[in-house]
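Continuing from yesterday's entry. The apo prediction looked reasonable, so today I'm repeating it with pyridoxal-5'-phosphate included to see how the binding region is handled. Same sequence as before; SMILES copied from the compound registry.
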Amino acid sequence: MTKLAKNDPQVYKLIKKETKRQQEGMELIASENYVSKAVLEALASVFTNKYSEGYPGKRYYGGQPYTDAVEILAIERAKKLFSAEHANVQPHSGAPANMIVYSAVLKPGDKVLGMDFSHGGHLTHGHPVTLSAKIYNFIRYKTKADGLIDYEELEQIALREKPKLMLAGFSSYTRQIDYKKFLDIAKKVGAITMFDMAHIAGLIAGKALPNPIPHFDIVTTTTHKTLRGPRGGMILCKKEFAQVIDKACFPGFQGGPHMNNIAAKAVAFKEALGPSFKVYAGQILKNAKVLENELRNYGFKLMFGGTDNHMILVDVFGSKGVTGKEAETALDEIGITINKNMIPDDPRSPMDPSGIRIGVPAITTRGMKKKEVKQIAQWINSAIENRNNEIILNKIHKEVIKMCKRFPI
Ligand SMILES: Cc1ncc(COP(=O)(O)O)c(C=O)c1O
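Holo prediction written out below.
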């Protein structure tokens, strides 16, 4: 980055500082990961200069031979990776991808049945603060006391409300969704089925979790998170929805696609098609299980009864009398980054909830396995229990940095 260092030392220094923070920090935010150098290079490429409104072969501006070729590459690789009939790689990110789907298949006021926010659903699945909730009529399903989705209640709500769209997918639910049960209910009421696999796309690509794509009508995802691509979105769907989805994306919702980002998506999909990605996805599940067992042994109450994926939701307030915010701050002090998170029907506020969410995709990318995860669990417990003891926190922080240096990004 010699040009940047010379032309804009302020931005250059901030990039250097962020690089150091990432190298020396233990990243346990469930939605974060590290992309490869190849993905970064594609992101920083001259494709950022090009306007390409439209789709390959049907653009509004000239000069598209290479943008067409790179978008076709991304589409074909995405279809292969997820056995999809159709792929749209243009959504700028996960939230716009969801909005594009809603606008493609719903009219204002139509009913959508989605997962409750505090039970694991994402904001874009109908939280009242969102634009989509102002346009469409969202109703919610929840999990039971044992932690699994309450499919009986889901069926009752579906039969009563007859939603036009039924939405599966989550940001903090840690268990596997029973695709068949969900789809059977949707079939009974004639609802279109949508799956937002943003969190688990990499686990699906790496065949560690079952693929929803052949079964659901429309599937949205982010291309970052477990899929380990650039920050972006994607929509996969059955052929019958291809035209309405493409139209809803452009010109319906977005303008010109970010072609540098699409080039980087193509690179990430190639990586995910390779054999080492399967090993990576499998290792994520193993690491999450180790973390689950260790934290349980330290007396933490785990929501949803444990994990089937890459993340764990811990009720820190219920287990240790420490709020999510306090736990987040204590872990920040030792260089471990997680996020405070609501637990189902949390009596506390979103800014200081009862829980924390912990995920292992990023540390697994660094090559950490059972031994390191056990050590991390011990540090988490110790930092939370000794959150007011600066000496202990400083000591752990030094050890965290040491371990991170042994596993360079
Ligand atoms: C399930 C789910 N859908 C959508 C999104 C939104 O993605 P983005 O932040 O890229 O807009 C997220 C982000 O956390 C998510 O977890």
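Comparison notes:
- Residues 275-297 form the longest helix (23 residues).
- The chain is about 50% helix and 15% strand.
Will overlay with the apo model tomorrow.
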